[in-house]
Specification:
Largest sheet: 3 strands, antiparallel
CATH topology of the largest domain: Ribosomal Protein L9, domain 2
Low-confidence stretches: none
Number of strands: 8
CATH superfamily of the largest domain: Ribosomal protein L9, C-terminal domain
Strand content: 25-35%
Strand order of the largest sheet: 2-1-3
Shape: elongated
Radius of gyration: 23 Å
Distance between the termini: 69 Å
């Protein structure tokens, strides 16, 4: 059965795409939830208007994320940790720690947006990528320093 998508459906398609699905999936999931409609001229015109509106909204959202990316590249965070004489941390600095430090500076970053290949385990300065969108990636400077003795 061929349908026209009214919304983005993960692993199926984006707004306005024609998709071919099994009848049961269409009848029991897509149509009752309003995710898709049957293909008619009026539905195609309506979906095209919705697609154009969604495209404009997405472009505005991406522009906002690009602005945030420039603020992120200008920002740097300092994280303190206990380390031995050689500079190896007793613990590690994770993406969650970096995201929390960025949130403390007023930047709304989710833990999953900070991408570390592995936790930082040494004292130093690191450039950490932050994925805001598939098209927008920023780099944040992270300073890992020795914790002051109490």
């Amino acid at each position: 059965m061929e349908l026209l998508l009214k919304q983005n459906v993960e692993h199926l398609g984006r707004i306005g795409e024609l998709v071919k699905v099994k009848t049961g999936y269409a009848r029991n999931y897509l149509l009752p939830r309003g995710l898709a409609v049957m293909i008619t001229k009026s539905n195609v015109a309506e979906i095209e208007r919705a697609r154009a509106q969604a495209l404009v909204e997405e472009q505005a959202r991406i522009q906002g994320l690009k602005d945030m990316a420039t603020r992120l590249t200008e920002a740097s965070v300092t994280i303190e940790g206990r380390a031995n004489a050689e500079g190896h941390l007793f613990g590690s600095v994770t993406a969650m720690n970096i995201a929390a430090a960025l949130r403390d500076k007023g930047l709304a970053i989710d833990d999953k947006q900070v991408r570390l290949e592995q936790p930082l385990k040494e004292i130093g300065v690191f450039d950490v990528p932050v994925h805001l969108h598939a098209e927008v990636v920023a780099s944040v400077k992270v300073w890992v320093v020795q914790q002051k003795p109490q």
